[in-house]
Amino acid sequence: MDGLTQSSETTDPAGGNYVQGRTVISDTAVAKVVGVAARGVPGVHALGTGASRSIGAIRDVVGATDLTQGIRVEVGESQVAVDIVFMAEYGYPLQELANTVRAAVYDAVEGMVGRSVIEVNIEITDVYVPAPDAEKQQPRPRLTERLGVKSAPSPDLEDQS
If I label 120, which of 8, 105, 150, 153 is the partner at 20 to 30 A Cα–Cα? Predict the structure, then answer.
């Protein structure tokens, strides 16, 4: 199924239900809700596998962020199943992180989409370990410094009166 179809019903003043029309919620819309919820959890570094994160970095540069990267949903008549692939940040207990992401997805989908979530399968593919400050690359020395050539001192602007 490509989306979620639901009849919208309201109560008329006499107390009976009548149908106003049909509502279709696409898989893409549900996947975006899931993606935003998962990204909002502290400890989630990036969604998707290594290859999809590389493509996603290019998309980010051109301003076309893919909010569904690393997300797969199956939308049924009344239920939603979700698969999420992401990279965690070092320092977060992985099982607790997975449970926090799962809870955030349940809340977001049930609150925004109005359907129950039957499962949220999570795959943590990697752990991001930031480089310590001391090991961060220092700026590369200028060519003149590498060659041992002293540069001419620049004229002082205050001396020019």
Answer: 8
Q: Side-chain half-sphere of 125: how many Cα atoms within 13 Å?
A: 15
Question: Over the stretch 20-76, which tens digit does the pLDDT of each residue have?
Answer: 887 788 999 999 999 999 999 999 999 988 665 555 555 556 665 668 889 999 998
Full residue range of the structural domain in which residue 105 is found: 21-130
Residue at 144 is within a domain:
no
* Torsion of the alpha carbons at 57, 63, 66 and 69, rounded to the nearest 10: 10
Task: Give me the number of domains the chain comprises.
Answer: 1
The pLDDT of residue 61: 62
Residue 10 has a pLDDT of: 55
- 70, part of any domain: yes
Specify the range with the lowest mean pLDDT, choosing from 41-45, 89-93, 131-135.
131-135
